[in-house]
Amino acid sequence: MKQFILIFLLVVTGIAGYSKSKLIPVSHQFIRYVGRFDFSNPEQVSYDWPGVYIQFNIRSSECSVKMSDTGHNYYNVLIDNQPAKTFDVKSDTTLVLAKGLGDGIHQIQIFKRTEGFLGIGSFKGIELPDNGEILPWKDIPTRKIEFIGNSITCGYGTEGLSKNERFKPETENNYQSYAPIMARAFHADFHIVAHSGQGVVRNYGYKDKVSPDGTMPRRFNRVFDEKEQPLWDYSRWKPDLVVINLGTNDFSTQPYPDKEVFIAGYNKLINEVLRQYGEIPVFCVVGPMIDEPCYSYVKEMVESFRSENQKKNVFFVGIPTYLMDPEKDLGSDTHPNYQGQRKMAAHVLPVISSVLGWSYKNDEL
After folding, report:
1. Helical (H) or strand (E) element with 350
2. Which of 299, 324, 302, 319 is nearest to 311 (CA)?
3. 20 to 30 Å CA-CA from 192: which of 94, 118, 149, 232?
């Protein structure tokens, strides 16, 4: 009899402690998606570009999300604008983002750290307790920036402990790239179209002067970095400016592309940006992992573009290699670490500020 009573109490206690949950679908109007997402499946949204982010507010003490991945990607979670945790996704899973939060409304942000070659991720909804609520995201920036780049823009190795450390996906953190750092300084939304090893006309280490397929300009029109289809609908999001940081991989190894071929390829990319977005400012950044001849080629290309096309909205920004302290500012495979990326942002921000008249915060720099 005593044993029966004990079992009965355990069952009742278990039922009393059980918290029912509800699934908030991906289509809910209060979930905010920033970046290139594929919404073709009503049960999930998919993506692979680095730096895509998902934002929502909750009135709840806990929150989980359902996600999956075709590969193995890493994410940052911010709660109330503070870093909360890093997690990885390599299968269909439910992840607890927060538990035991205080009363009131809480901001939740999920930020993709890693880049497209690590797999396509899918977001499948938010789990809240039955008494939890999802609320509108109110702090929506009016400024928008798009970044086109390579490994530096991706945040390759920003968490690497030294320049001699080899790349590992877990040390890539796009949140620490100069691009999101600049966007946060300007309080701007951003899109990132970037892939490690990609050049304007030649990818890193390619045996010939020109890579026939897959250079960064050929990825510019895609929803997914690693898939040629579907194509991106440019009418969905128009930036106020575009920052391009390409050329490093074209000239990192021999044989270099011919000057005329490189400049023609870069011109074509700028013209495509302006065709899709209109006469917005375009900032062509070089550095800090490359010097000559790339530096001079891009500078000459910008000056010629401004003169020949009578367009004064294209600008050159050179970041010298000596901006980086080789012992303090470099992470994996000699790429800029977080400190080096902050130096890059501090170098470029004043130029954009002067051109657009935008003020910015420097508390992260």
Report:
1. helix 338-356
2. 302
3. 94
Using DSSP's 3-state secondary structure scheme, residue 254 falls into: coil
Q: What is the CATH number of domain 143-356?
A: 3.40.50.1110
State the amino acid at position 129 in one-letter form: P
For residue 245, the surrounding DSSP H or E stretch is strand 241-245
Condensed to tens digits (0 to 9), the pLDDT of residues 100-152 reads 999 899 999 999 999 999 999 999 999 999 999 999 999 999 999 999 999 99
Q: How far from 187 is each of 98, 139, 356, 362, CA to CA, in Å? A: 25, 10, 14, 11
Flag whether pLDDT at 196 surpasses 80: yes
Contact 85, 72 (CB under 8 A): no
Chain Cα centroid distance, residue 291: 25
* Domains in the chain: boundaries: 20-135, 143-356
20-135 CATH: 2.60.120.260
Query: What is the pTM assigned to this prediction?
Result: 0.93
Give which of 214, 181, 205 is closest to 336, Cα–Cα: 181
What radius of gyration, in Å, describes the C-alpha atoms of the chain?
23
**Cβ-contact 201, 211 below 8 angstroms:** yes
